[in-house]
Write a structure and sequence with these properties.
single chain, four-stranded parallel sheet, 7% strand, elongated, SLC12A1/SLC12A2, coiled coil, chloride, transport
């Protein structure tokens, strides 16, 4: 089974250093072959090997005639390299098509270049040779020159120069990070925030060690589930820059990705301000202690925050390498601070520390602090809401995915390990403070217990201190009251302050880098066209300097506001919304059951991911319900905006996969539903040819099928099969795109056939799917039937009979000018080509003049300028009537106007329905549907039916009753009683003149001549046939007279 023309089912596959397929030459004797060495050697065979295995597994002899050219590559029994530095028999180089599996063939071996998306930044997409190209090459039966065969074998592949450019780009010196420096360090720094040093002890005091573990565990469950989902998405294809935005947008599509990407980038920008203000507040507290205030606390925070942001911006702009070094230094300081705390817990406590509640490890303190002791206004969820932001920060590594060497390996490994290490640290700190420090302490060394005093039974009483007065008056020390417990416990207090500085600055630096990176990726995708300015990158790392400046100003604005308590819950919810969508992306991709969903990270479950998404949403409301509502409202409006704009991107999202699955399920479910007259709707095959060649025919059909029925534009290619198939395949996508561009809800289908009738017959039988099969054939009236060849007339009439045979209704549409405007389109194409040539000529002349008239440095720049051929703005193919009036003489202007007549709003008028025979109601249904459309709503229905002259009123009442039962609104009913009378002589004469060329007139000829003419022209009308249908002919001619009399002014006549 050949798969040469199959679609790329492995798009976005992970590129790996796969073993190269190589064909080596070994020495064996061959009859008629000269010896390479003096000794007799065995014949030459090709040995196909895949790496180290499969030695001698496949031996295929080549033709003796080709041996000499191979011998040129032998040196001492081994294959030599050529000047072009490629292996002569390497099937992955430019000559693999010469000898693949030992034959002169163009069949291509598997290469990653065949499976890339068009425009992929991994490298050029190369097209494998099509079957047609292979057949043509085999038919030539000539030797293939290396240069030309490369172009044929690679299809539309990129030449070697562009590949060299890509290699140069790859070797351009861009800084790439591994999983430790790029992900692990960043995630640990972001997760270990100031909460570790100034809030964890308070949380243990409020919730106790037991519930504290539950709070930490619940937070870790959220982050772990998100990390697992993110790991699954990361290992399902190539990951580019953009972090959470890239993962969500490529999984759920631009609507979700575009909405969350913008608020996620904004959240990171504001987070810079939050962390910097946290740092500035700590510095201001130190200034207060030393009585060194500059102005006042608020302005001091602004001053210190501004200076800090400027320094951080300088580090970021200097490059990712400098930023990474700064992160490593900050992590070392943070680790030293944490280690300093653990060391302090085993250093014997002094009297001052004991008075503040620190007694080293004591079982009684552990037991007392194990249960909760919530103060007034606090509870489990309020404490959880305070702690949860401390567990976030798991996206810090993913946000710089574009700067990682191997993001598919680095993000899962670094993120999951960071979650584990930080969780262990949080739990260890919680146990240590819970086992060493009591909840309340006075700080007074005089509150010791003297012999004979009563003890309240607390752990402090057992250790010689009486802190019972803290139950009646507020105290300043202990887990519940002192946020600086870790500083007190630690071996050297200033190191904890350094740890707080490190935690805040590292988080601020990570957010300052993340926001521009995510924002740049969003702008590059051009989802929000107004933000395209920020897509530009600079330097070897493509640094988003414009994004850095924007982030700087956003951070500065919020630092100057200095009211972050209100904005903080919203920012936390922005991050949680990102987590929820990452989890939902993993669930959605699994639920869609797309064959392209093949994550290498197998430790995930779609229902667990869904649970993670629901849990994230629940946590959003737990933290702050109004902030959650604001987050959802903002995301909803951005989603609506992106959906409305419909960005021109195709990322193979799971939304597309699920749409297919839903459509397939609905189509299958529809097959189980029996047809019912109430659910009948016109489902049309329209013989338009190319949809742009008969726009009026398509417009009138679309008017009564839009949003209510199926419409398929069909084209039959007649001629040699190879040429027809090639032309048909090349135009399929273009013509379907034309329908989409012109907002016509229709499909395009084409067939190649030996004759037109056979093609239409195939379409009538095979088009559609299940219940969505055509039931109506729409054709244009054959305006040139008098001049057309006999075979065309026979095919035209034949397809009408074929439709009836297949139980398909037929609608024949006629307008005075006809439908085919292919000549107009041809003229338009020629005019556009002439305009392009004119602009190109003008550009060339202008450049030549500049070169001749300029010298020195200015002339040098002019010579370096490339020829710029301006491409004129493409005109919509639907608006043909915009062609300049100076060219009107080259085509029929009336035809152009007629081709757009159904696009315009129809004025007040009538649609005349001549319902002379009961055809099942289609004659009445189509005009009724038309009156429901905006363009036809001003047209009223007039119904014409046949009847007896002496029963006109009775017939009229009966028809009105029938129409009311059908719920068809009508303006008037006309009963035609004189339809069966003979037409006037003038009309009959016109009819006879029209059919005269097609009459046989056998009565005027002798019998032999008449029989001969019947055999030669069986389609001609005999005198006997004319006489047999004379009454019917009278009625048709009379009907023409009645139409002229009653419906000449109608907007549309349905007969």
């Amino acid at each position: 089974m050949s798969l040469n023309n199959s679609s790329n089912v492995f798009l976005d596959s992970v590129p790996s250093n796969t073993t190269r397929f190589q064909v080596n030459v070994i020495n064996e004797s061959h009859e008629g072959s000269g010896a390479v060495n003096d000794n007799a050697d065995p014949p030459h065979y090709e040995e196909t090997s895949f790496g180290e295995e499969a030695q001698n597994r496949l031996r295929i002899s080549f033709r003796p005639g080709n041996q000499e050219c191979y011998d040129n590559f032998l040196q001492n029994g081994e294959t030599a390299k050529t000047d072009a530095s490629f292996h002569a028999y390497d099937s992955h180089t430019n000559t693999y098509y010469l000898q693949t599996f030992g034959h002169n063939t163009m069949d291509a071996v598997p290469k990653i270049e065949y499976y890339r998306n068009t425009g992929s930044i991994s490298g050029p997409k190369v097209n494998r040779p099509s079957l047609l190209e292979i057949h043509e090459q085999l038919a030539k039966n000539v030797a293939v020159a290396p240069g030309s065969a490369d172009r044929v074998a690679n299809g539309d592949g990129v030449p070697g120069d562009e590949q060299a450019e890509n290699k140069e780009e790859d070797q351009g010196g861009a800084v790439k990070f591994g999983w430790v420096k790029g992900v692990l360090v960043r995630c640990m720094l972001n997760i270990w925030g100031v909460m570790l040093f100034i809030r964890l002890s308070w949380i243990v005091g409020e919730a106790g060690i037991g519930l504290g573990f539950v709070i930490i565990g619940l937070s870790v469950v959220v982050t772990t589930l998100t990390g697992i989902s993110m790991s699954a998405i990361c290992t399902n294809g190539v990951v580019r820059g953009g972090g959470a935005y890239y993962l969500i947008s490529r999984s759920l599509g631009p609507e979700f990705g575009g909405s969350i990407g913008l608020i996620f980038a904004f959240a990171n920008a504001v987070a810079v301000a939050m962390y910097v203000v946290g740092f500035a507040e700590t510095v201001v507290d130190l200034l207060k202690e030393s009585d060194s205030m500059m102005v006042d606390p608020t302005n001091d925070i602004r001053i210190i925050g501004t200076i800090t942001v400027v320094i951080l911006l300088g580090i970021s702009v200097a490059g990712m390498e400098w930023e990474a070094k700064a992160q490593v230094i900050l992590l070392v300081i943070l680790l030293i601070a944490i280690a300093n705390f653990f060391i302090g817990t085993v250093i014997p406590s002094n009297n001052e520390k004991k008075s503040r509640g620190f007694f080293n490890y004591q079982a009684s303190i552990f037991a007392e602090n194990f249960g909760p002791s919530f103060t007034k206004g606090e509870g489990f969820f309020s404490v959880f809401a305070i702690f949860f932001p401390a567990a976030t920060g798991i996206l810090a590594g993913a946000n710089i995915s574009g700067d990682l060497e191997d993001p598919q390996d680095a993000i899962p490994r670094g993120t999951m390990l960071a979650i584990f290490i930080t969780t262990v640290a949080y739990l260890a700190v919680a146990i240590c403070v819970g086992a060493c420090v009591v909840r309340d302490a006075t700080g007074s060394m005089n509150d010791t217990i003297i012999s004979g005093m009563n003890c309240n039974g607390s752990a402090a009483c057992g250790l010689g201190y009486d802190f019972s007065r803290c139950q009646h008056e507020p105290c300043q020390y202990g887990l519940m009251n002192n946020f600086q417990v870790m500083s007190m416990v630690s071996g050297f207090g200033p190191l904890i302050t350094a740890g707080i500085f490190s935690a805040t600055l590292s988080s601020a630096l990570a957010s300052l880098v993340s926001a521009p990176k995510v924002f740049q990726a969003l702008c590059k995708d051009n989802i929000y066209k107004a933000l395209q300015f920020f897509a530009k990158g600079y330097g070897k790392n493509n640094e988003p300097l414009r994004g850095y400046i924007l982030t700087f100003f956003i951070a500065m604005a919020f630092i100057l506001i200095a009211e972050l308590n209100t904005i903080a819950p919203i920012i936390s919810n922005f991050f949680l919304a990102s987590y929820a969508l990452i989890n939902f992306s993993c669930f959605h991709a699994s639920y869609a059951k797309s064959p392209g969903w093949r994550p290498a990270y197998g430790v995930y479950n779609m229902w667990v991911s869904l649970f993670g998404a629901v849990l994230c949403c629940a946590v959003m409301f737990i933290i702050n319900w109004w902030a959650a509502v604001i987050t959802y409202v903002i995301e909803f409006f951005l989603y609506i905006y992106v959906t409305y704009k419909k960005p021109d991107v195709n990322w193979g999202s799971s939304t597309q996969a699920l749409s297919y699955v839903s459509a397939l399920d609905n189509a299958l479910e529809l097959t189980t539903v029996e047809d019912h007259v109430k659910n009948f709707r016109p489902q049309c095959i329209v013989l338009t040819g190319g949809p742009m060649t008969r726009p009026a025919l398509l417009d009138i059909t679309h008017a009564f099928t839009k949003n209510s029925g199926l419409c398929i534009c069909c084209e039959v290619f007649v001629g040699p099969r190879k040429l027809c198939v090639k032309e048909m395949n090349s135009g399929m996508a273009k013509k379907q795109d034309w329908l989409i561009k012109n907002k016509i809800k229709a499909f395009y289908a084409a067939v190649a056939a030996d004759c037109f009738r056979d093609g239409v017959r195939s379409l009538l039988q095979a088009s559609g799917l299940g219940r969505m099969k055509p039931n109506t054939l729409v054709v244009g009236y054959k305006k040139n039937w008098r001049k057309a060849p006999l075979t065309e007339i026979e095919n035209y009439v034949g397809i009408i009979h074929d439709a009836f045979d297949f139980e398909i209704g037929v609608v024949i549409v006629r307008i005075s000018q006809g439908f085919d405007i292919s000549q107009v389109l041809q003229v338009q194409d020629e005019l556009e080509k002439l305009e392009q040539e004119r602009l190109a000529l003008e550009a060339t002349i202008k450049d030549n003049e500049c070169e001749e008239g300029s010298g020195g440095i200015r002339g040098l720049f002019n010579k370096a300028r490339k020829l710029n051929i301006t491409k004129p703005t493409p005109k919509k193919e639907s608006s043909i009537n915009t062609i300049q009036s100076m060219h009107v003489g080259e085509f029929n202007q009336k035809l152009v106007e007629a081709s757009t007549q159904f696009k315009k709003k129809q004025g007040k008028g009538t649609i005349d329905v001549w319902w002379l025979f009961d055809d099942g109601g289609l004659t009445l249904l189509i005009p009724y549907i038309l009156t429901l459309r905006k363009k036809w709503k001003d047209c009223k229905l007039r119904i014409y039916v046949g009847g007896k002259i002496n029963r006109i009123e009775e017939e009229k009442i009966a028809m009105a009753s029938l129409l009311s039962k059908f719920r068809i609104k009508f303006a008037d009913i006309h009963i035609i009683g004189d339809i069966n009378i003979k037409p006037n002589k003038e009309s009959w004469k016109v009819f006879e003149e029209m059919i005269e060329p097609y009459r046989l007139h056998e009565s005027c000829k002798d019998l032999t001549t008449a029989e001969k003419l019947k055999r030669e022209t069986p389609w001609k009308i005999t005198d006997a046939e004319l006489e047999a249908v004379k009454e019917k002919s009278y009625r048709q001619v009379r009907l023409n007279e009645l139409l002229q009399e009653h419906s000449r002014a109608a907007n549309l006549i349905v007969l």
